[in-house]
Hints:
Blueprint: E1 10-15, E2 22-27, H1 32-46, E3 51-54, H2 63-72, E4 75-78, H3 88-91, H4 93-108, H5 115-127, H6 139-144, E5 154-156, E6 163-165, H7 166-208, E7 222-228, E8 238-249, E9 254-259, E10 266-270, E11 274-276, H8 279-285
Helix pairs in contact: 4-5
Organism: Phytophthora fragariae
GO molecular function, one term: nucleic acid binding
GO biological process, one term: DNA integration
Amino acid sequence: MVEGEGGLKYVLVLKDGMSGYVELVACLQATADTAYPALIDWFKRFGVVHQWTSDQGAHFRNQIIEQLQRALGAHHHFVTAYTPWANGTVEVVNPEVLKAMKALLSERRLSVRDWPALLPVVQAALNGMPANRLGGKTPLTAFTALAGGSQLTSILHPRELVDTLVEWVTQDLQAHLEDVRVALECLHAEMVDASEKRRRAARERHSLRPGVKLQKFSEGDFVLAATATGRSGNKLALLWRGPKRIVKALNDFTFEVTDIIPPFDVSVRHASRLQLYREAALRSCRNKPYMERVAISWKHCAIAD
């Protein structure tokens, strides 16, 4: 975020995975000194959460948070590096926060530095929005059993000089949307087959590309593991090292691998960064741009007395 009033620059997003309830905490810095009190503040109001999921940022992976996790008897799961989709539950909140913040700043004609003052409004909007996956309930209701949704309870009827409940607007809107849905279904009926054929063909072409389908691994497999080198200005350039052995499958796509020589270091790798070990693959994957080879041949010379 742009530096706001008071030097605030970051927003820490805390989200309950079941209900989708979020808390947005404005921070001066992305450090453990800001993450720790935010977690404590959540626990003191809603109770201790025993399952945490986060990325591997230094503000989460440190001794302070580790001591808190041990003291509370919680389990802290770190998603694999360079795989933001593994933490998509909270990652999807970020664009929603930015979109709502831009809309409010523009509507209220405020300076971009005033965003910290609007953060509670954005949080209330996110938690008060009914969600289809919650059966039309809001995250606030699902998480705290408090009434959520719009704070407006009654309005003036547009065609009659009487007050009416907001539910009338919802019912009238739903009836109109149902008519629109039926009309669109009729309009799109002839397009569905053609669209499905195009998607099927695109998926087939995509599946033929190398590296799209992830390899299946099991505990005990010997593999090559990729490491980002950062060479040539590309932080995602990969260097394959191995062989290593898979010692534990954390889930279908994340594995613990260990070196087969001392000190037997253990690391967590995503399936997209692993491939089964083969001697030929090792020779082809190792990148040694600075190795020089010199061809030497010996010739016999007779020495005359």
